Input
Amino acid sequence: MPSIGEQTARLNQLLAAWRTYRAPLTDPQLSCQLKTDLYQVRNAGWNGNPPLSSWPPNLIDSDDAMMAAVEHYFLCRCWVGTGAQPAWQMRAMNNIYDLGKMFGVTPQHNPNKPVSRVTALQMAAKEAGVRDGEADLERTGGTAPLVAMPPTY
Output
């Protein structure tokens, strides 16, 4: 198993590659497009999503937990950066989701694919997405509600 330093380096490499792939979009719209792209990658061939072969290979890692970390980073950055979810609530939802994974009760979204295992890297990626989303929201002068309806994804 790669060290946490190697995993972090790979995560940062993938985040940068995905951002380059969708340039010249800027955040928060960039993160919103990328969360959608990554949802399609992680559910390739299911429910009308394009096959994995339709994506550039440099954007894909064979470890689904790594791809989950990338997807969750952009999802958190999008939802917080657009003001769809307040940062405090996004953090709470992330904690509940991760606890559900730890106890094996988080439901599968795709019936053909199990939920990825929870990793420290995923948790850190989500928190980084929330923090970067907060900065995006502030930069754009946006606001978030005090509490939002839980999202459907």
